[in-house]
Amino acid sequence: MDDSVVSVQGLIKRYGTITVVNNISFEVNKSEIFGLLGPNGAGKTTTLECLEGICKSDGGTMRVNGCNPQLDRHKLHQTLGVQLQSSSLPDGIRPGEAMSLICSWHGLLPRFDLLRRFGIDYQNKKQYSEMSTGQKRRLHLALALSCDPAVIILDEPTAGLDVQARADLHDAIRELKATGVTTLLATHDMAEAESLCDRIAIIIHGHIATIGTPAQITSAGHAETRITLRTKTNCLLPGRDIGNAHFINQTGDYGIWLCRDTATAVMELLKEVQHFGDSVEDLRVERPSLEERFLELIEGGVQ
């Protein structure tokens, strides 16, 4: 059974002679949180705008919950919620009025509960122009959820939010996943992507450089695993290369090694400890972070 709710196949988008999105393909399953990462100008927002029906594609096919976003805008509006990276409302409108307007457009009763959920109910007397950036972002998200969408697109949703508001938004995204909502998330926040996303696509120069779970992405490529080790009698210090483990630093009683073949390097280190009749008091194996892998891909280009 095909669980794909969002499908993008061979998407191409040009602006004049410049190809911004070049043959991008991916699928997103029901209730999945799918992240799009990439440097500025990589094509993330353009890809989302094509899915939202805002931009007309120059090639490829797309489906959002069974509808073609390029052809069936009415059906798309019934199934897709969108929080744009940059959006605005009339300066004089109040949150409650904005919610009433959007819900009326969908033929629904106003969802004032969503305003309360995101902590902006008390802002009902404040005009949009008087709201802070964080308050506006929370209002935009509440409006995006007003039609109970099957799919929601969030483009830099936590921009301008304080720590508590970010945590609340992350909880809300996880709650949406639990209710079966499919989420596409574009973000520059590596920790956010690694924490929230089931899978991630890294886009560079209009191409998908890699796609997979955060663990799959960070374990691939050339970045090395870090092994931090402390023994009872410090038999491995001062540090040196041991087999596949390349010594890089000593911090107090800890030695730090880098390796490509993690299992072999750990076994070689432990064998050396055993050879000296020593014992391990602390051993940590840390794979490269998503940010390190991201920078590696940018420096190396599309693989």
Automatic annotation (TrEMBL):
<keyword id="KW-0067">ATP-binding</keyword>
<dbReference type="InterPro" id="IPR027417">
    <property type="entry name" value="P-loop_NTPase"/>
</dbReference>
<keyword id="KW-0813">Transport</keyword>
<dbReference type="InterPro" id="IPR050763">
    <property type="entry name" value="ABC_transporter_ATP-binding"/>
</dbReference>
<keyword id="KW-0547">Nucleotide-binding</keyword>
<dbReference type="Pfam" id="PF00005">
    <property type="entry name" value="ABC_tran"/>
</dbReference>
<dbReference type="InterPro" id="IPR003439">
    <property type="entry name" value="ABC_transporter-like_ATP-bd"/>
</dbReference>
<dbReference type="GO" id="GO:0016887">
    <property type="term" value="F:ATP hydrolysis activity"/>
</dbReference>
<dbReference type="InterPro" id="IPR003593">
    <property type="entry name" value="AAA+_ATPase"/>
</dbReference>
<feature type="domain" description="ABC transporter">
    <location>
        <begin position="6"/>
        <end position="230"/>
    </location>
</feature>
<protein>
    <submittedName>
        <fullName>ABC transporter ATP-binding protein</fullName>
    </submittedName>
</protein>
<dbReference type="GO" id="GO:0005524">
    <property type="term" value="F:ATP binding"/>
</dbReference>
